[in-house]
Amino acid sequence: MLIDLHTHSIASDGTDSPHALIDKAISRGIDVLALTDHDTVGGWDEAIRALREHPSHSKMELVLGSEVSCQDDDGTSIHMLGLLFDSKYEPLIAEFEKTREHRVTRMSRIIARLNEAGIDITIDEVYAQKRDDATLGRPHLADALVAKGHVASRDEAFKIFLHNGSKFYINHYSPSPEMAIRLIKEAGGVAIIAHPLASRSGRTIKPETLMKLIESGLDGIEVDHRDHSEIERSELLRLAIEHDLVVTGSSDYHGTGKLNQLAEFTTNPQQWERLEAKANARRVVRR
Is residue 8 helix, strand or coil? Predict the structure, then answer.
């Protein structure tokens, strides 16, 4: 059974439409797929239609969610996967909107720094790389840098210009991870921290921060992810078992924007059953 609980579409920084993502997941033989675009539920309706109208009559199940951008007290970026929440819970949706608004001003400031360093790129060229209502992010800037010939790929853009330690990097407003957990759970959903020890992409959080999140009601940990080393996976698995948290694995698929492939890491069916049972309603989408 293939269960992939972390994917993206053009509703944020993926390169596949929600419809195309559903098509690919069905053709890949995935049994349960979660759509988790950054700070938005904008791709949900299209994904639901694509599943229910798919000509194959696939029995794939769709889990709707979002990858919530957060940062802790020292400005470390933390991503929280919220799944199975009620999209009509206004406090959570309002937080998404606030984060998305701040992403726009942050992008302008990053571009200004690039321009000061002699790198010719404009905000209009960045906007040309995304769908009108998509959540604006660094991958769109990376795509614009590729289109302009400054780099050859998204990966190269992040390695040279856009990684968290770059002189061009600027934080944007986002809620604390504790707030994100609270809002997700108030909305009836479940909260899983995404790639918390992703040393391969330069993002790691402090052990004490992770303990604070567990104390705040964290439901699960994304253990199996391509940015985790074997040692990091072992440490996260130990923590999950010690604190009775759900263990997930997922692709973090972005389409052609990253090397990640659908279902390259998956979640054990028993762990998925535990996770779904923690939501306050049965919200998995079926045909």
Answer: coil
> pTM for this one?
0.89
Sign of CA dihedral 63, 12, 166, 161: positive
Residue with tokens 């790691």: 204
- Whether the CB-CB separation of 171 and 107 falls below 8 Å is answered with no
Residue type, 249: G
- Residue 237 CB: number of other CB atoms within 10 A? 15
Query: By the 8 A CB rule, do 144 and 151 touch?
Result: no
pLDDT in tens, 73-113: 877 889 999 999 999 999 999 999 999 999 889 999 999 99
Contact 3, 269 (CB under 8 A): yes
pLDDT in tens, 68-77: 999 988 778 8
Domains (ranges, CATH) in the chain?
3-96+172-278 (3.20.20.140), 97-162 (1.10.150.650)
Kindly provide the residue ranges of all beta strands, DSSP E only, lying in 99-232, ordered along the sequence: 190-193, 197-198, 203-204, 220-224
Max Cα distance, the chain (Å): 54
- The rounded distance, in Å, linking the Cα atoms of 163 and 186 is 33
